[in-house]
Amino acid sequence: MAPPDDRPAWWRGAVIYQVYPRSFADGTGDGVGDLAGIRSRLPYIRELGVDAIWLNPWYPSPMADAGYDIADYRTIDPLFGTLAEAEALIAEAHALGLRVLLDIVPNHTSSEHPWFKEALAARPGSHARERYLFRPGQNGGVEPPNDWESVFGGPAWTRVREPDGSLGEWYLHLFDVAQPDLNWQEPDVHEEFVAVLRFWFDRGVDGFRIDVANALHKHGDLPDLAGRSGRPVIREGADDHPFWDRDTVHEVYREWRRVADSYPEPKMFVAEAWVPTPDRLARYVRPEHLHSAFNFDYLGTPWRADLLRESIDEALVALEAVGAEPTWVLSNHDVVRVVTRLGLPQPHRRSWLDVELDGTERPDVDLGTRRARAAALLMLALPGGAYVYQGEELGLWEVLDLPDDALRDPIWERSGHARRGRDGARVPLPWTAGCPSYGFGPADGAPPWLPQPAAWSRMAVERQAGDAGSMLELYRSALRIRRVHPGLGSGPMRWLESSMGVLAFERDNGIVVVVNVEGAPVALPKHRRVLLASSPFDASRLPPNSAAWLEV
Ligand code: NOJ
Fold first, then answer.
1. Pocket of ligand 1, candidates 73, 175, 177, 355: which has the most ligand atoms within 8 Å of its Cβ, to mutate?
2. Mean of the per-residue pLDDT values of the chain
3. Which tens digits make up the pLDDT trace of 506-541?
4. 212 lines ligand 1 (CB under 6 A)
5. What is the rounded CA–CA span in Å between residue 496 and residue 266?
6. Among 112, 456, 489, 497, which is least packed by CB within 10 angstroms?
């Protein structure tokens, strides 16, 4: 038995960089990001100063939902590379001191997964069908079994043709029609996912981000929604939803935690769970459950001091009650980029796919950038861990004018072109100004899978590196300080008195954070040294939409 280890677990207070493989770097020149590209840019991630990377799905997939429709959980899609390259990537990341998290998608498989093909070829009532949620339709079979709607738009049920050619049962897909939901009451499903976790853990992977962790268990009777929203909800609808956040879903994660803890250096999980309240989120990170869960309530909070403070407090109180710390996040591949969000009027909370721009709202990118800089310093000074989505450190904005025929997100088609979807947050990164695709791929490579805005030439990594006023250097400085300052990361915080529209708090070891969200210019305490500020300011007065870290 290993000797007791009293070092704090690495993931407490860790900053984790989200790599969206198809848009990070294209090593092979086909216009799509890949493992060769990621491997060539690992030193960049290391230099940024993060502790780990999380990779969005890289598994074989028909790509109906950009890889969240997995046909084989144990290898790599040829679009991205090979299993051998994945193993090399893991080893190289480790050699640079970066841990590696993968994405696991347990709510649904691809319709091309061997299990689903077997289910389609089998009879109603067969064991193969039991692994998914097949049901007879209503009214003689012609209507879906209930009124559930897909998160992406349209009905959540599709009728199949039986092997004899007749129209038959319906299967549930909370997302795209090519993403059939698994039946988590079926023991095979449990066994298979434990085996998949072990497959990757045994290859050195340090943890997993769990896709829609709150959807695995459905109400046994599959009752109608009867007017309730089928889309993920925050701050409402806490009670007994037929598929979101059911009390029993945690059984899955108790089982997975035992798997993670069985390794000499325990593995970790982070839950993607859009839930109505911080208390509900805390249930995912109770002892013997998951290690962490994204705080999306905070992500959806408007740029208002009172609401930010309320969200922070509620998260801290709810999580402290279960002995956990928050995991902060400002953006990811599903939400409008933070610069654009914060450049919009900020009247009320908005969430995930609800953050859809209807064409009438015009973001103020300069204002959004100032706020995003302050928001980064606020997030990186809060207790707990944080995630940074690729391009956030470059201040990239949401690309709102992608041509219609470039859109790939299934939301665009499934919503009958009513919602443009999430492609605007997934546009390939600019690395070098003045090169084709801004260095995303080789100079003679195919154009990137989504077009990049001309203005991103000035956002390129090579342009920002070394420019003290750039977003990249702000992130690098903040992460450098955070790595060495014993007051930042995991640990307590105390609010300090502050004027209207301003947040001020203290961490341990003499560090004070002041965020002027929307107040009048605020005087900073005189005996404190400015360690880092999000925008230039005259000696003592911090303007609105900016933040500073101070030290005695
Ligand atoms: C959440 C993922 O982040 C998103 O990109 C995906 O479309 C859905 N889950 C379905 O897997």
1. 175
2. 94
3. 999 999 999 999 999 999 988 899 999 999 887 679
4. yes
5. 37
6. 497
Round to whole Å and give the CA distance between 324 and 78.
Answer: 39
Taking a C-beta distance cutoff of 8 angstroms, is the pair 266, 238 a contact? no
Cα dihedral 351→386→430→395 (10° resolution):
70
Mean predicted confidence (pLDDT) in 49-76: 98
What number of helices (H) and strands (E) belong to the chain? Answer: 16, 18
Closest CA relative to residue 14, chosen from 316, 270, 339, 322: 270
Query: In angstroms, rounded to a whole number, what is the distance separating the alpha carbons of residues 62 and 77?
Result: 9
Beta strands in 256-376 (DSSP E): 268-271, 292-293, 327-329
Beta bridge partners of 17: 53, 388
**Both tokens assigned to 381:** 């000074």
Closest ligand 1 atom, CA of 410?
A: 7
Average pLDDT over residues 357-365: 76
- Residue 76, token pair as written in the block: 């790599």
Instruction: Summarize the chain as % helix, strand, coil (round to 5).
Output: 30, 15, 55
Helical axes 187-201 vs 250-261, angle rounded to 10°: 30
CB of 175 shorter than 6 A to ligand 1: yes
CA of 333 relative to ligand 1 center, distance in Å: 9
Q: Is 70 in the pocket of ligand 1 (CB under 6 A)?
A: no
User: Which position among 34, 51, 85, 272 bears the catalytic label?
Assistant: 272
Residue with tokens 């909070």: 301
Cα separation, 457 vs 29, in Å, equals 19
Q: Is the pTM of this model over 0.85?
A: yes
Instruction: Give the separation between CA 44 and CA 2, rounded to whole angstroms.
Output: 35
pLDDT for 346 equals 74
Is the pLDDT confidence value at 355 over 50? no
Q: Which of 213, 36, 14 is nearest to 99 (CA)?
A: 14
Please work out whether the CB of residue 105 comes within 6 Å of at least one atom of ligand 1: yes
Report how far residue 135's alpha carbon sits from residue 223's, in angstroms, rounded to the nearest whole number: 13
Closest CA to 145 of 125, 175, 170: 170
Q: Do β-strands 167-172 and 157-161 pair in parallel, antiparallel, or remain unpaired?
A: antiparallel
Q: Which helix (H) or strand (E) holds 270?
A: strand 268-271
> Is position 211 annotated as part of the catalytic site?
yes
User: What's at 372, amino acid-wise?
Assistant: A
- Can 272 be counted among the known catalytic residues? yes
Question: Of 300, 381, 282, which Cα lies nearest the Cα of 347?
Answer: 300
- Ligand 1 pocket member 63 (CB < 6 A): no
Calculate the alpha carbon distances from 174 to 55, 178, 182, 244 in Å.
23, 10, 10, 10
Question: Residues 6 or more apart from 300 whose CB is under 8 A from it?
Answer: 234, 349, 350, 351, 352, 355
For tokens 């000696």, what's the residue? 539
Closest residue CA from atom 6 of ligand 1? 68
Q: How far is the CA of 481 from the centre of ligand 1 (A)?
A: 33
| Residues facing 294 on adjacent strands | 327
Q: Is 393 in the pocket of ligand 1 (CB under 6 A)?
A: no
Residues recorded for the chain:
552
Spatial CB neighbours of 431, under 8 Å, sequence gap ≥ 6? 25, 41, 438, 439, 440, 460, 461, 462
